[in-house]
C-alpha cells in the first residue's frame, strides 16, 4: 500500500517490498474461473456439450465429486472411479482443470443403514436421517474410517493426475452432534485440558448455582445458554473435532498426492460454529462460499468477508462457490442486477482471491435446489447470465499476467476473534449488539480510505501494521495480551472498540476493569458499560455524533491519557464523561472507544486513526459509490476500481496507469504509463477498471 501512496504523491516507480510470490503452479492460470459441475447427475452424452460451453465462457476449472459418494462407492468396498476418470479426461480435452471434492458431506444410504451410529444427533436429541446431506456425526470413528477410505481411494487414483489441481475436503463444515457418546468425548477432552476437576471448577466458577462437578461424567453439553466457561469449551471442542475430522482426510490425501495439488475446504464467511483460524491451519489455502442471498451486494461488506478468509492463512484464497445471479434458499431469491455478478467477481479478486467459481453449472433435473441460479438451464443451453460470466472469463485472461504474484498488502489490520464473538453472542446484554456489525463500523471507513485492510486473529504477527484495530475483542488469552502489548511498545497504534478486553481465556471476567491487562498501559479503564435504549450524543475530535446500542463510561487515571470524545446529555451516568481516550506510548499509541462509530463520526475517526498511524489515503478523492481495492507484488500495484453508483463516475489518477482490462472511456493519457497510460477515465454503473502501475 505504501507504494501506491507514493505513486500518487511522487509519481515514482518503486521496487516492491512484497514477499517473493510463489510462481503459479503448472497448469494453474493465475486467475481461475470455475463452475461446480456434477457429471454424476447426467448421462455422459451431455458432458461434451456442457464442457464445450464452459470452454467458450473461458471457464478453466470445475469442481467435481463433493456429493458423489453413492456413485463412487455404490456399496461398501465397491469402488467405481472410472466415470470420474472419464470426466477428468473430458474436461482436459476442453482445457479445463479439475478440483476434486471428497464426498463426505453426503453419505450414501447403505452407509447410514449399516452404521446408524454414524448419524448425527441434533441438540434436541433427534437423530438425523438419510435424504438430505451432512447427516453424519463429525466425531464418530466409524464415519471417519469410511470417509478416510474413500478419500484414500480417490487420492491413490488421482494424486498424480496432471489435470487435477487440488482437493476440497468435505463441504461447508457446519453441524456438530449432541449424542451421549459425543458428550463423553467432550468430557474426555475437558479432562485432558483441565487435568483436575478442582482446576475446572475453579476456572469456571462452578460454585455459582451449585454447578460444582464431582466427576467428569456429570458435565453436560451446553451450547446456547449456560456457564460461560462451559459454553466456550464446547465451542473449542467442536473446533478441535472439526480439525481432527479434517485431518483424517487431509493426511490420507497428502500421503498420495503431488504437492502441487493443493488442499482446502470451503468455509462460509462470518459463520462461526468453530474457530476458523485453527481449522484452516492444516490446509494449503483457504477458500469460501460467497453468497448474498436476498438483496444486492454491498462491496465493503462482501470485501470484509473476503478479507476475513484471506486472514485465515494470511495469503490469497479462493472463492469456491458464488451465486450465478441468485440462490434458492433465501427469503427472497432476487437476482443480482445485470453487471453486478461481474462487479462481484472483481470484488473477490481485488481482495485477494485467485479463483471465482459459480455454483452451479447446470440446473439438476431434480433434487433440493431446482430453483438455484446456474449458467446453463436444465436444457443445457446458456441462461442470460452466461454471457456476463463469459466476459469475466475474458477479463481474467487479460488480467491474469498482471495479477500473478500479487496479493493484498495492507498497513491496517482489524482483529477478529471467534471466542470474543461467541462470548458476546451468549450474553449480548443488548440484543441489537452484533460483533460483526461492530467490526464493520471500523472496516467500512478504513477500507474506503486505505484501499485495503487485513482481518486477522489477535495472535497474528502485527509488527508490519501501522494501525491495528480491535473491535469488541471481548476475550484476551495471555498470548493475545502479550502480542498487543508488544505491538504498542514496539511503536504500533492500537485502537480498541467497545466491549474489549473484558474476559480471559476461560470466559471469566478479568479482575481489572476493561481493557483488563492493558488498562494500565492505557491509563484509563471502563467504569461502567450501558446497553442503550436510545442513542447518546457525543462530541470532540471527531465532531458531533451519537453512540447507538452501547456506551461505556471511561475513567481516566493517567495525566498522559487524552480525552478524544465526550458523551453529551443522556442517562445522567454518561453525561460529560469520556467516550474515547488515547495515550501515546513511545512512537506508538493505545486508544479505547467506549462509543460506537456511526456515520460521519466513523469517517472522521477513521481519518484520525490513519493520520496518527501515518497511513495515507490510497487516493485523495474517491468519487461517491466507487470502490477501490489494491493488490501489490512483483514491482507493481494493481488498483481495481468498480463503480456501484447508478451514475457514471469519473476517476482522476495523479499519475497514468495501464488499463489491464478496459470497459472504461479514456479521457486523458499521460506520459508515464507503460502501456495505454490512462490518467482519467469514466466508469458506468458496475463498470470495472483494473489499473496497473509498475512493470
Ligand atoms: C452452498 C453449498 C452448495 C449449494 C449452494 C447453494 O452452501 O455448498 O452445495 O447447496 O450452497 O447456494
Describe this structure in words.
The chain is of the alpha/beta class and 695 residues long. The chain contains 18 helices and 26 strands. Helix 9 packs antiparallel against helix 14 and helix 11 runs parallel beside helix 12. The chain is globular. The site of beta-D-galactopyranose (GAL) has 10 residues, from loops. The site of beta-D-galactopyranose has 10 residues, from loops.
Summarize the structure.
The chain is of the alpha/beta class and 695 residues long.
Largest sheet: 9 strands, parallel
Shape: globular
| Helix proportion | 25-40%
Structure ligands: beta-D-galactopyranose
- Content-based structural category: alpha/beta
Oligomeric organization of the protein chains: single chain
Beta fraction: 15-25%
Uncertain residue segments: 1-18, 670-675
Number of helical stretches of at least 4 residues = 18
Rg (C-alpha, Å): 26 Å
Distance between the termini: 16 Å
Average pLDDT rating: 94
Strand order, sheet with most strands: 5-4-3-2-1-9-8-7-6
Tell me the number of strands.
26
Task: Describe this protein with a few key phrases.
globular, alpha/beta, nine-stranded parallel beta sheet, nine-stranded mixed beta sheet, 18 helices, binds beta-D-galactopyranose, single chain
Show the helix and strand layout.
Layout: H1 2-10, E1 32-36, H2 47-56, E2 61-64, H3 69-72, H4 82-93, E3 97-101, H5 109-114, H6 141-158, E4 164-168, H7 180-194, H8 197-203, H9 228-254, E5 262-264, E6 266-267, H10 276-280, E7 287-290, H11 299-313, E8 317-322, H12 340-350, E9 353-358, H13 386-403, E10 412-415, H14 418-426, H15 435-450, E11 454-456, E12 467-470, H16 478-489, E13 493-496, H17 519-522, E14 524-531, E15 536-540, E16 545-547, E17 550-556, E18 562-567, E19 578-585, E20 588-593, H18 599-613, E21 626-633, E22 636-643, E23 649-662, E24 665-669, E25 678-683, E26 688-694
Parallel strand pairs: 1-2, 1-9, 2-3, 3-4, 4-5, 6-7, 7-8, 8-9, 10-11, 10-12, 12-13, 13-20
Antiparallel strand pairs: 14-17, 15-16, 15-18, 18-19, 19-20, 21-22, 22-26, 23-25, 23-26, 24-25
The site of beta-D-galactopyranose has 10 residues, from loops.
Amino acid at each position: 500500500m505504501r507504494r501506491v501512496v507514493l505513486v500518487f504523491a511522487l509519481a515514482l516507480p518503486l521496487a516492491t517490498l512484497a514477499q517473493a510470490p510463489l510462481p503459479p503452479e503448472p497448469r494453474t492460470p493465475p486467475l481461475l474461473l470455475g463452475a461446480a459441475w456434477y457429471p454424476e447427475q447426467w448421462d455422459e452424452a451431455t458432458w461434451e456439450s456442457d464442457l464445450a460451453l464452459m470452454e467458450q465462457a473461458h471457464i478453466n476449472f470445475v469442481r467435481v465429486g463433493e456429493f458423489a459418494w453413492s456413485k463412487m462407492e455404490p456399496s461398501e468396498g465397491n469402488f467405481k472411479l472410472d466415470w470420474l476418470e472419464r470426466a477428468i479426461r473430458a474436461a482436459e480435452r476442453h482445457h479445463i482443470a479439475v478440483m476434486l471434492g471428497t464426498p463426505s458431506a453426503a453419505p450414501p444410504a447403505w452407509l447410514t443403514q449399516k452404521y446408524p451410529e454414524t448419524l448425527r444427533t441434533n441438540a434436541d436429541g433427534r437423530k438425523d436421517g438419510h435424504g438430505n446431506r451432512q447427516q453424519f456425526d463429525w466425531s464418530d470413528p466409524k464415519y471417519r474410517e469410511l470417509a478416510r477410505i474413500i478419500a484414500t481411494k480417490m487420492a491413490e487414483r488421482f494424486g498424480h493426475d496432471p489435470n487435477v489441481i487440488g482437493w476440497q475436503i468435505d463441504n461447508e463444515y457446519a453441524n456438530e452432534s449432541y449424542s451421549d457418546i459425543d458428550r463423553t468425548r467432550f468430557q474426555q477432552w475437558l479432562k485432558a485440558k483441565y487435568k483436575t476437576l478442582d482446576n475446572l471448577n475453579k476456572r469456571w466458577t462452578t460454585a455459582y448455582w451449585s454447578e460444582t462437578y464431582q466427576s467428569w461424567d456429570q458435565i453436560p453439553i451446553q451450547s446456547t445458554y449456560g456457564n460461560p466457561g462451559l459454553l466456550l469449551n464446547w465451542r473449542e471442542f467442536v473446533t478441535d473435532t472439526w480439525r481432527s475430522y479434517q485431518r483424517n482426510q487431509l493426511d490420507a490425501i497428502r500421503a498420495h498426492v503431488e504437492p502441487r495439488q493443493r488442499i482446502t475446504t470451503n468455509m462460509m464467511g462470518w459463520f462461526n460454529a468453530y474457530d476458523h483460524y485453527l481449522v484452516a491451519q492444516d490446509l494449503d489455502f483457504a477458500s469460501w462460499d460467497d453468497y448474498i442471498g436476498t438483496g444486492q451486494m454491498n462491496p465493503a461488506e462482501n470485501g470484509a468477508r473476503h478479507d476475513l478468509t484471506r486472514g485465515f492463512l494470511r495469503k490469497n484464497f479462493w472463492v469456491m462457490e458464488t451465486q450465478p445471479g441468485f440462490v434458492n434458499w433465501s427469503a427472497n431469491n432476487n437476482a443480482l442486477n445485470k453487471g453486478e455478478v461481474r462487479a462481484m467477481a472483481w470484488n473477490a479478486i481485488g481482495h485477494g482471491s485467485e479463483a471465482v467459481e459459480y455454483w452451479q453449472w447446470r440446473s439438476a433435473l431434480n433434487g433440493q435446489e431446482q430453483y438455484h441460479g446456474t449458467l446453463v438451464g436444465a436444457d443445457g443451453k446458456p441462461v442470460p447470465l452466461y454471457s456476463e460470466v463469459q466476459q469475466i472469463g475474458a477479463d481474467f485472461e487479460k488480467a491474469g499476467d498482471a495479477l500473478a504474484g500479487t496479493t493484498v498488502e495492507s498497513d491496517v489490520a482489524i482483529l477478529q476473534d471467534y471466542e470474543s464473538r461467541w462470548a458476546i453472542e451468549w450474553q449480548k446484554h443488548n440484543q441489537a449488539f452484533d460483533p460483526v456489525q461492530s467490526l464493520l463500523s471500523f472496516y467500512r471507513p478504513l477500507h474506503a480510505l486505505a484501499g485495503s485492510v487485513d482481518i486477522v486473529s489477535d495472535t497474528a504477527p502485527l509488527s508490519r501494521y501501522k494501525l491495528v484495530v480491535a473491535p469488541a475483542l471481548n476475550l484476551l488469552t495471555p498470548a493475545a495480551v502479550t502480542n498487543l502489548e508488544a505491538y504498542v511498545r514496539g511503536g504500533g497504534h492500537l485502537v480498541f472498540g467497545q466491549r474489549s478486553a473484558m474476559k480471559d481465556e476461560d470466559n471469566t471476567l478479568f479482575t481489572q476493569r476493561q481493557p483488563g491487562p492493558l488498562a494500565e498501559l492505557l491509563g484509563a479503564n471502563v467504569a461502567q458499560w450501558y446497553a442503550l435504549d436510545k442513542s447518546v450524543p457525543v462530541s470532540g475530535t471527531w465532531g458531533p455524533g451519537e453512540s447507538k446500542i452501547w456506551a461505556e463510561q471511561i475513567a481516566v487515571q493517567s495525566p498522559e491519557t487524552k480525552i478524544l470524545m465526550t458523551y453529551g446529555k443522556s442517562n445522567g451516568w454518561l453525561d460529560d464523561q469520556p467516550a474515547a481516550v488515547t495515550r501515546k506510548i513511545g512512537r506508538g499509541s493505545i486508544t479505547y472507544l467506549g462509543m460506537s462509530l456511526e456515520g460521519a463520526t466513523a469517517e472522521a475517526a477513521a481519518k484520525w486513526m490513519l493520520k496518527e498511524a501515518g497511513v495515507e489515503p490510497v487516493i485523495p478523492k474517491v468519487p461517491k459509490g466507487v470502490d477501490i481495492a489494491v493488490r501489490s507484488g512483483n514491482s507493481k500495484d494493481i488498483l481495481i476500481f468498480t463503480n456501484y453508483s447508478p451514475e457514471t463516475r469519473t476517476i482522476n489518477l495523479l499519475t497514468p496507469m495501464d488499463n489491464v482490462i478496459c470497459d472504461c472511456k479514456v479521457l486523458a493519457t499521460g506520459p508515464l504509463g507503460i502501456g495505454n497510460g490512462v490518467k482519467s477515465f469514466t466508469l458506468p454503473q458496475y463498470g470495472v477498471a483494473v489499473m496497473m502501475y509498475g512493470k
